[in-house]
Design a protein that fits this description.
alpha+beta; single chain; two-stranded antiparallel ribbon; 10% strand; binds zinc ion; 7 helices; 31% helix
């Protein structure tokens, strides 16, 4: 297991906020939906000193699909590196294409795709760029060493953020999936259901 292992099954979105007129208003929903990490490369908020590393990306770019600018299903939580690599391309939804069975994370940090769609997305996002691979391999090793020798460091690398968003306090113009609030990370933490690390 590494922190770069993709989820076993494609994401089924829990949230469905509607009615916002600017896409940044979706940020707390997207943080929660994407488990506080980049949907493409799985870089985590916890690893960065500045939340500004995370942006809101449009799967289908605004310049060609202006009607989807504030459409929740078109929004993805992405780090600046992945958002920059993607540019204005239309790409497949990483939460559907990058799954554990579709991508093997090698111990040196390389990603080995097993499907055509995963191979294409990895290429489009430069996820096997040598510097990216080097960074991923280094993070895998740091987490391995922390697991063996430094439980506090391990917990700080892999725990959830302290400031889990309270989605029930937000005022969407509507919510097509209101039940998602109960499945949000804050609610799960309050019920004692959230694991210490992920
Ligand atoms: Zn990324």
């Amino acid at each position: 297991m590494t922190p770069f292992d993709y989820p076993p099954i494609p994401l089924i979105r829990r949230h469905g906020p509607v009615g916002y007129t600017d896409y940044d208003s979706f940020r707390p929903w997207l943080r929660d939906e994407f488990t506080f990490r980049c949907a493409f490369c799985l870089r985590r908020e916890r690893w960065e000193p500045d939340r500004g590393v995370f942006e809101i990306d449009h799967l289908r770019p605004v310049n060609r699909f202006p009607g989807l600018a504030v459409e929740y299903e078109n929004l993805i939580y992405s780090c600046t590196a992945c958002n920059g690599a993607k540019r204005a391309e239309t790409v497949a939804d990483p939460t559907q294409v990058l799954t554990a069975s579709a991508v093997t994370v090698e111990s040196d940090g390389r990603l080995t795709p097993h499907t055509i769609a995963a191979r294409r997305l990895i290429r489009q996002l430069d996820l096997n760029d040598p510097l990216f691979v080097q960074w991923r391999g280094r993070m895998i090793r740091i987490v391995e060493l922390a697991a063996l020798h430094d439980p506090d460091l391990y917990a700080s690398l892999l725990s959830f953020p302290d400031d889990l968003p309270d989605l029930s306090a937000l005022k969407p113009g509507g919510n097509t999936r209101p039940d998602g609030i109960e499945q949000s990370h804050l609610r799960r933490r309050e019920r004692g259901e959230l694991p210490a690390v992920y």
